[in-house]
Write a structure and sequence with these properties.
The longest helix has 16 residues. Helix 1 packs across helix 2 and helix 4 crosses helix 5. The protein has 2 domains: 37 residues, GTP cyclohydrolase I, N-terminal domain (GTP Cyclohydrolase I, Chain A, domain 1); 130 residues, GTP Cyclohydrolase I, domain 2 (2-Layer Sandwich), CATH 3.30.1130. Helix content is 41%, strand content 27%. By secondary structure, the chain is α+β, with helices and mostly antiparallel strands. It has a 5-stranded mixed beta sheet, sandwiched between helices. A two-stranded antiparallel ribbon has the order 1-4.
């Protein structure tokens, strides 16, 4: 962490600030610690996150989890994007513990990302661990790189989706998913 803290000291100095000013004395360490947390997904594996929370089930009807809070860091500007994730899946003999959907989301969100890839990574991970007949993921987010800089559009948001298996093949299945997620 010392190397990262030293780099933050250098950035603060390059911005024209005095890193020895009272308000900035511990900022490099705090910023380094924050960045390590915000990118902790690199140090986490899918196996760790799931932790054997896949259970046998004879349910073969759609399961939808919506409103999973998410924040990530744009890989282009290293600014946050913040939103929600909705996940649907069609079980095929196995279901996943409810909290694992949020943990899978966090594992991929806590990396430098673009929203399109984040959406796909979540979908593929749920597919991998459940063996589901289909997986749907929708991510809706507001991007600080659009709001704080550049075009400065405060009311813009982005939605991305990935549909696998039964969700990709069937308009009726997709429609049921969107209805259950409240869209």
């Amino acid at each position: 962490m010392k190397a990262l803290s030293d780099l933050y000291s250098q950035v603060i100095t390059e911005l024209g600030e005095d890193v020895n000013r009272e308000g900035l004395l511990d900022t490099p360490k705090r910023a380094a610690k924050a960045m390590q947390f915000l990118t902790s997904g690199y140090d986490t594996s899918l196996e760790e996150v799931v932790n054997n929370a896949v259970f046998a089930s004879d349910n073969d009807e759609m399961v939808v989890i919506s409103g999973i809070e998410m924040y990530s860091m744009c890989e282009h500007h290293m600014l946050p994007f913040i939103g929600t994730v909705s996940i649907g899946y069609l079980p095929d003999g196995k279901v996943l513990g409810l909290s694992k959907f949020a943990r899978i989301t966090d594992m991929f969100a806590r990396r430098l990302q673009i929203q399109e890839n984040l959406t796909k990574q979540i979908a593929e991970a749920v597919q991998e661990v459940t063996g589901a007949r289909g997986v749907a993921v929708v991510v809706e987010a507001r991007h600080m790189c659009m709001m704080m800089r550049g075009v400065e559009k405060q009311n813009s948001s982005m939605a991305s989706s990935v549909m696998l298996g039964g969700f990709r093949k069937s308009a009726a299945t997709r429609s049921e998913f969107f209805r259950l997620m409240g869209k």
